[in-house]
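A protein record in our archive is deliberately plain, so that people and models can read it alike. The tokens are whole numbers drawn from a learned vocabulary of local backbone shapes. For reference, a complete record is included directly beneath this paragraph.
>
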Amino acid sequence: MKIYTYPSREAENRLKQIAGRSLAFRQKDLNAVRRILADVRQEGDAALIRYVNRFDAPNLTADQLRIAPEEIQAAGRQVDRAFVRALDRARRQIEAFHRQQAPRSWIDTPRPGTLVGQLVRPVDAAGIYVPGGKAGATPLVSSVLMGAVPARIAGVERVVMATPPRADGGIDPHLLVAARDVGIDEIYRVGSAWGIAALAYGTETIARVETIVGPGNIYVTLAKKLVAGTVGIDMIAGPSEILVIADAAADPEAAAADLLSQAEHDPLASAVLVTNHAPTARAVAASLQRQLPLLPRSEIAAASLKHYGAILVVPDLDTALDLANRIAPEHLELLVAEPFSMLGAIRNAGAVFLGAHTPEPVGDYIAGPNHVLPTAGTARFSSALSVGHFTKKTSVIHYNRAAFENEAADIVRLAEVEGLTAHARAIEVRLKKK
């Protein structure tokens, strides 16, 4: 990766190029997804199985879309104990974190004769989309946990999982075991935009849900964007990204490995190092050159670093923090001698990882916080997937006669200013009835 001195025009141009890569959709992709959504909405299972056969499993039939209970049970015999142990730890720690988020209903009596409050209720059904990767090569087990655990804590009764099948129609057993571990038994072999369409609109086989969460490719992202409003969604997410702030105390090998941990996701992923120490910048660049060829996904990571990677040398760590807040990265690592001293200055980041022993994958899998995070600078105004995404809040209001009369004149005046005379009359007719 090239080393840039910041501030400079060259560094600014590179940062603009990186920031401009995300959430940009080609019109032809948007049109294709619109057609898919319309087909599934109009034709149901017939369209759904047509897309599954064309792109994923050529011999799958509509009556095989739902995973049978026996297949879920059999999956438990196909995974090793080390996986089950790791999965159990991750689930417990993710549950412990998300329990702290559970919103509560409340009632207050702020003025004599009045009662106001809020009822918090879970949505009736939630769809968890879980990517399977090309030909099931990268089954994202962690996405099962990150989607289903907060849904369960919110109290959602029906939690549904959709994931694309392999060419033979099978689903990776690790995904099925993870689903079983979080209490999901309604699992469908559908992926991409047609899977999102089925969850949003329903088909003969798949009943619609109220909220859809989970990561996916460009077609999944566009489908979620287009069905938002028909159903709730978590966010419109772009490619993964990481920004590492490092000082002279940082281990260059570790910093390089952390950058590659996100670069391997996608050619559009972004990996940026910001340091106030030029020797660290050079050492990280050299380490990237050594580590990159060792990765099975080296071509993907290389494309990411080439097009959307950068190493920035800044005058001081305050400048590094200013850059981090400006970029608002999905993942922000503080590989510095005193990371906690910098935490208070962080305003915009999806998740912050503090210190040498807290690389980003700790958060991806096991620490507890959700790994479905805002990207493309949207951490300036949005947050990680949480229990709140699976709830809705209903306001509660009650006035007795005395309280109503005490505030009626003000209500009438505000309604008159807005020109809404029927609003005012709804108050006035009650004032006349003693």
Notes: The chain has a mean pLDDT of 96.
